[in-house]
Specification:
about 150 residues, alpha+beta, two-stranded antiparallel ribbon, 3 helices, about 15% strand, elongated
Length: about 150
Amino acid sequence: MATTTYIPPFETRTRVVIEPERTDAPPRRHVARRRPAGRPEPVPCVGSAEPSLHGSRLTRRGRVVVGLAWLLLVVAGALAFVRPWDGGAAPAGATAVTTVEVRGGDTLWQLATDVAPTADPRETVAAIIELNGLSSAADIRPGDLIEVPAR
């Protein structure tokens, strides 16, 4: 089947072009679709949920996941206060202490490394300041008796 194309020229005469049929491409067929005569009315389903302001409903699996997430948060919060991994550590107020006399030239850093050589000196210095109610490291004088944590 050949295609006929009408090409109007700028001249007064008309020109007709007949193109040969293409054999490499399948012919195009237009299928008309019928549209319904009227608009369909929505029909409620038997299992439809009432509309809510809360958004989507959770499936059973979703409720289980949300429940487990809340349980995990509660357990993590409880463990933050109980701290069972501390072993049998004594409370902060029940720390064993030793009394040490300050000599000339001693600093809190030196006292901390002498008392607990394997511990972090910064933590030990902070504990000494807290135990003795010092405002700074300059508050100690030679001959003072200060309490240091026993480790």
